[in-house]
């Protein structure tokens, strides 16, 4: 380990490392996970309320297959 890094880690208090770096980053990651989970649940709800969702998916895939063959 370089002398500068070694000195920095020796002088850095453990509580600062935990409460100033580790804890905020961890909380931010949890917040992002919760946000995207809520958004995914909203999209799933909207898709389940769409009556012709499966029909449109099959139609678009068959159109893609026809374009691919020509």
Runs in which pLDDT lies below 50 for 5 or more consecutive residues are: none
What global shape is seen?
elongated
The end-to-end distance, rounded to whole angstroms, is 63 Å
Binned strand content: under 5%
Largest sheet: none
Order of helices and strands: HHH
- The overall strand count is 0
Overall mean pLDDT: 81
Summarize the structure.
The chain is mainly α and 70 residues long. It is 89% helix and 0% strand. It has helices at 3-11, 14-49, 53-69.
Characterization of this structure:
The protein has 70 residues and is mainly alpha-helical. Helix content is 89%, strand content 0%. The protein contains 3 helices and no strands. The relative contact order is 0.05. The model has no long low-confidence stretch (mean pLDDT 81).
Keywords:
mainly alpha; 70 residues
Write the layout of secondary structure elements.
Elements: H1 3-11, H2 14-49, H3 53-69
